[in-house]
Amino acid sequence: MLASIIQNLFNAFQWGSFYSLIALGYTLVYGVLRLINFAHGDIFMVGAYIAFFIATAILGMAVSLPGWMVLAMVIPLTMILTAVVGVSLERIAYRPLRRKGAHRLYVVITALMCGLVLENGNLALLGASRKSFPELVDKVVYTVGDLSMTNLKIGVVFSAILVFIFLHFIVTKTKIGMAMRAISYDKFAVPLMGIPIDTVIVFTFILGSSFAGLAGLLFALSYPILDPYMGAMIGWKAFIAAVVGGIGDIRGAFLGGFLLGFVEILVVAVFPSTYRDLIAFAILMTILCIKPTGMFGVAGTTKI
């Protein structure tokens, strides 16, 4: 019984890592722009497809390369190209509305439409058939007593932790991070201090989208079947994780993702899998009823 619980906890760490990586992108954009980028889950999907085409192209050109070397090339290219997609959305869809002073509701609707464009654009270009991601890493199973874990699961968890440490360093210890925090406090006073808002916003989208691309690659390595709608549900769940953690706070997004992963896996371990989302979301809704701002969120004030 104890071994089964520990095994489920480790599986929860893997799912929580996916949610955390995507939730960090949600909370970054919201923290700077007060914008919920509902297209972020579909950027995760785009990242998985970008990784698929890069890996396929590299394997086609140099079949003799070992998988780990191909993976070492796929990771930065996927993150860079996914960041380009995220920045393109910001430049084409969000920036014109922001400069016209559009109401936040219209920006949220635009974000939803951007997600639909990415999903249906993928469907139109590549068709409805699913893609099988190439196996770049040989799966190795480590067994400790009754507990078994694979090198992929360990890699996913460590990747999420390293991303969080890296992001926390940028936000708290660098000038660009200080500018991001300044914009979240008062975006009208920041330009008067000589800080280029557009540059900071672009950097924010680069970070968030590249993390979503990394999450897409790691997800494709772990579950190597891709389809155009794979980012919809996981994106919504990551958003809920960010809200439960306290959207706008990177610690909250990180821990909220793991919390959702734990709740889902433990629910499946006790109840039928069909009850997973019902019970998991009921628990998360209860947490929000007790603490509406999330675990690390702070109630905001509005001057009238």
TrEMBL record:
It is found in: Cell membrane. The chain crosses the membrane at residues 12-36, 43-62, 68-89, 101-118, 152-171, 192-223, 229-247, 254-272, 278-299. It is a multi-pass membrane protein. CDD domains: TM_PBP1_LivH_like. It holds the Pfam family BPD_transp_2. Keywords: Amino-acid transport, Cell inner membrane, Cell membrane, Membrane, Transmembrane, Transmembrane helix, Transport. One of its GO terms (biological process) is L-alanine transport. Signal peptide: none annotated. One of its GO terms (molecular function) is L-valine transmembrane transporter activity. One of its GO terms (cellular component) is plasma membrane. Belongs to the binding-protein-dependent transport system permease family. LivHM subfamily. This is Inner-membrane translocator. It comes from Desulfomicrobium baculatum (strain DSM 4028 / VKM B-1378 / X).
